């Protein structure tokens, strides 16, 4: 038994993904800012505290739509192709893990905007233009991809938890309601549970990614480079507790975010299919 009500194409997945990505990033930006500041080596208060919690919003909006679109097009395409190769339902978790991991790797477009956004959230820059100019002058193009590998290392375990659990919950709900599909609001609940669970488990990877992205070339005390090196340094200097900095806002943010992201995606996909938009 599946959980899809409509047959949709990749153009519809592209548009629905863009709408979902923008919706969740704008709605939950303040929580994301607080989480970033809690994870900063400089400390919550020094990084801005509760002031200017919308710093970096422009950068987030620029990256959210193409990033989410790239993810969902890749995810849906790989899920369909792998499903035809491995039709047995016992392979579904494997299929969802591989498809979601492929989607995350495709989100390379999001990394530069994430770097700018997080540095502005930590009050390193006051405007998007000054952030772009300073990062480029001091670090070159590589500066905009600082933390790319730590981002991928964080996102792949996260998505390997989130999407198999999300797809499993969708199937369970469909069976419980005697339907072969679920409604967008039901998908939102499934997304919330799956996202919150995955977010809690992968918090240490998120802390490592944040520390690397907040580091700028030329820094000494707060400079971090390399995932393993950053992990060992945090563990040695600050202890295990620091690896779970910001876990509260992260779990709340991702639980709500999973609900909005996947609920809006399913709703947008349903609307596009019902009205034959981009069919």
TrEMBL record:
<keyword id="KW-0496">Mitochondrion</keyword>
<keyword id="KW-0472">Membrane</keyword>
<feature type="transmembrane region" description="Helical">
    <location>
        <begin position="52"/>
        <end position="74"/>
    </location>
</feature>
<feature type="repeat" description="Solcar">
    <location>
        <begin position="90"/>
        <end position="172"/>
    </location>
</feature>
<keyword id="KW-0812">Transmembrane</keyword>
<keyword id="KW-0813">Transport</keyword>
<dbReference type="InterPro" id="IPR002067">
    <property type="entry name" value="MCP"/>
</dbReference>
<dbReference type="GO" id="GO:0055085">
    <property type="term" value="P:transmembrane transport"/>
</dbReference>
<keyword id="KW-0999">Mitochondrion inner membrane</keyword>
<dbReference type="InterPro" id="IPR023395">
    <property type="entry name" value="MCP_dom_sf"/>
</dbReference>
<protein>
    <submittedName>
        <fullName>Pet8p</fullName>
    </submittedName>
</protein>
<dbReference type="InterPro" id="IPR018108">
    <property type="entry name" value="MCP_transmembrane"/>
</dbReference>
<dbReference type="Pfam" id="PF00153">
    <property type="entry name" value="Mito_carr"/>
</dbReference>
<keyword id="KW-0677">Repeat</keyword>
<comment type="similarity">
    <text>Belongs to the mitochondrial carrier (TC 2.A.29) family.</text>
</comment>
<feature type="transmembrane region" description="Helical">
    <location>
        <begin position="12"/>
        <end position="31"/>
    </location>
</feature>
<feature type="repeat" description="Solcar">
    <location>
        <begin position="186"/>
        <end position="271"/>
    </location>
</feature>
<feature type="repeat" description="Solcar">
    <location>
        <begin position="8"/>
        <end position="81"/>
    </location>
</feature>
<keyword id="KW-1133">Transmembrane helix</keyword>
<dbReference type="GO" id="GO:0005743">
    <property type="term" value="C:mitochondrial inner membrane"/>
</dbReference>
């Amino acid at each position: 038994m599946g959980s899809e009500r409509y047959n949709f194409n990749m153009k519809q997945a592209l548009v629905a993904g863009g709408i979902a990505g923008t919706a969740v990033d704008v709605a939950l930006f303040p929580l994301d800012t607080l989480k970033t500041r809690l994870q900063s080596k400089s400390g919550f208060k020094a990084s801005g505290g509760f002031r200017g919690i919308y710093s970096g919003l422009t950068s987030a909006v620029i990256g959210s739509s193409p990033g989410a679109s790239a993810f969902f097009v890749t995810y849906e395409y790989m899920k369909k192709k792998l499903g035809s190769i491995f039709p047995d339902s016992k392979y579904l978790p494997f299929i969802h893990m591989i498809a979601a991991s492929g989607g995350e790797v495709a989100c390379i477009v999001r990394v530069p905007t994430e770097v700018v956004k997080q540095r502005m959230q930590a009050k390193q820059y006051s405007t998007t233009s000054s952030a772009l100019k300073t990062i480029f002058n001091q670090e070159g193009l590589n500066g905009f991809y600082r933390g790319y590998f730590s981002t991928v290392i964080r996102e792949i375990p996260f998505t390997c938890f989130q999407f198999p659990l999300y797809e499993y919950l969708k199937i369970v709900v469909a069976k419980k309601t005697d339907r072969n599909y679920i409604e967008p609001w039901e998908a939102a609940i499934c997304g919330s549970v799956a996202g919150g669970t995955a977010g809690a488990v992968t918090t240490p990877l998120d802390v490592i990614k944040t520390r690397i992205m907040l580091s700028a070339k030329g820094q000494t005390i707060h400079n971090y480079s390399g995932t393993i090196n950053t992990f060992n340094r945090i563990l040695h200097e600050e202890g295990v507790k620091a690896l779970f900095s910001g876990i509260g806002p992260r779990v709340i943010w991702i639980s709500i975010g999973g609900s909005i992201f996947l609920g809006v995606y399913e709703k947008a996909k349903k609307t596009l299919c019902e009205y034959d938009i981009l069919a």
